[in-house]
Amino acid sequence: MSVEGTEKVSKLLNKALKMELTAVKQYLYNAALLRDWGFDNLAKIEVKEAYEELEHVNKFSDRILFLNKNPKFDGPERIKKVNSVEDIIKCNLSMELDAVKTYKTFIKACLDSKDYGSYKIFLDVLIDEESHVEHLMKQKNLIKTVGIEGFLHAQE
Q1: What is residue 105's predicted lDDT score, i.e. its pLDDT?
Q2: How many other β-carbons are positioned within 10 Å of the β-carbon of residue 116?
Q3: Confidence band of 4 (pLDDT split at 50, 70, 90)
Q4: In this structure, which long-range contacts are made by residues 41-46, counting pairs with CB atoms below 8 Å and at least 24 apart in sequence?
Q5: C-alpha–C-alpha distance, residues 24 and 148, integer Å
Q6: CA 143, CA 141: separation in Å to the nearest integer?
Q7: Roughly what angle, to the nearest 10 degrees, separates helices 40-66 and 3-36?
Q8: Number of C-beta neighbours around residue 98 at 10 A
Q9: Residues 10-47: tens digit of each pLDDT
Q10: What letters, b where the CB count within 10 A reaches 16 and e where it falls short, cover 83-92?
Q11: Are 119 and 110 in contact (CB under 8 A)?
Q12: DSSP reduced 3-state for 38
């Protein structure tokens, strides 16, 4: 891998790091709201997702350091304000779909740069994100089928 390739990939890794830090904040914010609204089981799922995103933060920051670059932990993006359980699911789904799309382009860039270590990390994280999308789509479809009241009742 060339120095130019290392620069390019380290920038992508730092963008991914920022995305994952934002996701951690979003999931923790959602969990706090859900606990406040009395949906403790849904809140636990959000906390679990936050921890998974934190694992991605660790993978990306470790790889950046391995490439002799500095991970940038400053300024995750602003989180989205949500007002309902449905808003949370829509917000999470949008965030995860964006991550899937972004990481697919980052994977190609890693291959172009012949950085197979970063490629593997992005691929592993992409698989996790696709799993999150699948879970959120199931929740969205369940709400469509049984209505929000039936969905929330099932979460108790």
Answers
A1: 97
A2: 12
A3: low
A4: 41/155, 41/156, 42/85, 42/88, 42/155, 46/88
A5: 25
A6: 5
A7: 160
A8: 13
A9: 999 999 999 999 999 999 999 999 999 999 999 999 99
A10: eebeebbebb
A11: yes
A12: coil
Instruction: Work out the angle at residue 86's Cα, subtended by the Cα atoms of residues 49 and 25, and round it to the nearest 5 degrees.
Output: 35
Give, for 131, the enclosing helix (H) or strand (E). helix 116-154
Write out the DSSP string of 66-94.
HTT-----S-PPPPPP--SHHHHHHHHHH
Domains in the chain: ranges and CATH? 3-154 (1.20.1260.10)
CA 60 to chain centre: 12
- CB count within 10 Å of CB 114 equals 11
Q: What is the pLDDT of residues 67-120, one digit of tens each?
A: 999 999 987 688 999 999 999 999 999 999 999 999 999 999 999 999 999 999
Regarding predicted confidence, which is higher, 4 or 131?
131
Structure tokens at 3: 């120095």
Could you tell me how many helices (H) and strands (E) the chain has, helices first? 4, 0
